[in-house]
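COMPLEX REQUEST
Ligand: pyridoxal-5'-phosphate
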Amino acid sequence: MLQCLNKQTITQRFFKNFYTSVIPKVGLDIQEKLIFEQGNENSVGIDFEQPDLSIKSRLGHLKRNSKIGLPNLNEVQVIRHYSRLARFNYGVDTGLYPLGSCTMKYNPRINEKVARIPNLAFSHPFLPTEAIQGSLGLIDRLAEDLLKITGMNSICMSPAAGAHGELCAMQTIAQAHKKQGNTHKNYILIPDAAHGTNPATSAMAGFKVRVVKSTKNGKIDLEDFKKKCKDDVAGAMITNPNTCGLFENDICKIAEMLHEKGAYLFMDGANMNALMGRVFVSDLGVDAMHMNLHKTFSTPHGSSGPGSGPVVFSEKLTKYAPIPYIVNDEGEFKVIEKDRTGNSFGRMKAYFGQVGIHARALAYISAYGNGLASVSGDSVLNANYVKFKLEKEMSLGYPKNKYCMHEVLFSDNFLKGTTLTTLDFAKAMIDAGYHPPTIYFPLVVHGAMLIEPTESESKETLDDYCKIIIDLAINAKTGKYDEDFHEAPTTTIIRRADETRAAKFPILTYQEK
Ligand SMILES: *Cc1c(COP(=O)(O)O)cnc(C)c1O
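STATUS: Structure written out below.
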């Protein structure tokens, strides 16, 4: 294993020392310049006929005075530029993509085909409702299916992502308290393991956040929850299974405590891949929950979109939920745009939601039918398979739990005594041919690595993956290969990017040097 790393490192050094003037290359992968850097002002990619300059321009003050700002490349250059960029993509179609908390499952091609049906893909939201009955019917049917899966009372289909769905739920809870005159209810309880979008959306909806501790087994500390669940609490945001990949067994008790105080339970449903077909969330005492259609119900995602995060509500919250919604009036689908009771907090988004993603989710659900329970069963089975294979050489985040749900959490404990960090270990995985898992999240475990294989991986893939990771872990612990780990990845065009800087100071427009 590590021999392969060494060889690569040598190649890289060879290039560094002897060919500093060439564009960095790894095999046939080229470090692609920006399209504007490749362009040349003196060339044109297309032959225009010489304009008749004797005709007076009729453009008047609209005539362009500045440069046109096109990159000026010929067709071959353009094709190569975009084809090379496309090769840099890593996705579920390329290999295992075990990003915990993201559910990077295979997205069946039939879903893509359905979403591209021209009448659906090109229908315009400004068309009269008579002309978009098919699209509205599709949204309505998916809404019905999602209600069946969750057992809840009503649904809002418009939110455009998981975080947007959370915001939708928190605004609904805020509206419910406002309408009931509960001005003293300003706090939302959130466990310390929560996804960052939970506190963010609470704050955006006008609440303050009170953090609840986790126990040393990675679950909500019920005593701490009880202490903090006071009269000023408006609700709680509980992820279940939580971000440590563990089921919160006390969810029903938590719901009771909240309801006793006149507060609401929001469940972060991003991890529905572990539950669907197994439990009605309505039975858990949940008042609102978002689902990530782009995770659980198979829409390709990553790099900020596209997404869809419908929210289901209990009967208590239904009248405060946002508009618009679709009703089936004896076979005719109508869009209800106005809230007649004056209770709804309003609109989340223009139009009806992400119809293309609704189409994919409906295709996915229809293909599985009752088999959705086998999806959650297999995703939990696969995660536990990885857990039992890796736990001897790596260190579990919470070793006392015999089983995990759909993802398994490791800490950097096994790297103690070496100079290696979780980042070094994750980067070495790339050289070994595997995309790293989610790292340094959740924050409750030191140097976290969160692996979510999903149900779509075969035993062969998981066996190979575990073999390689075990090899890496054994080599890491010897302390003999620290330099190789620090150098990794050596097989990529860009080695270690400054990810924090890239996220905080992105340069989004090209500036000529
Ligand atoms: C992914 C995720 C979210 C946010 O969903 P987005 O669609 O990325 O906005 C929220 N909570 C959890 C636990 C998640 O995994």
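REMARKS: Confidence is low (pLDDT under 50) at residues 1-23. The CA atoms of residues 40 and 504 lie 31 Å apart.
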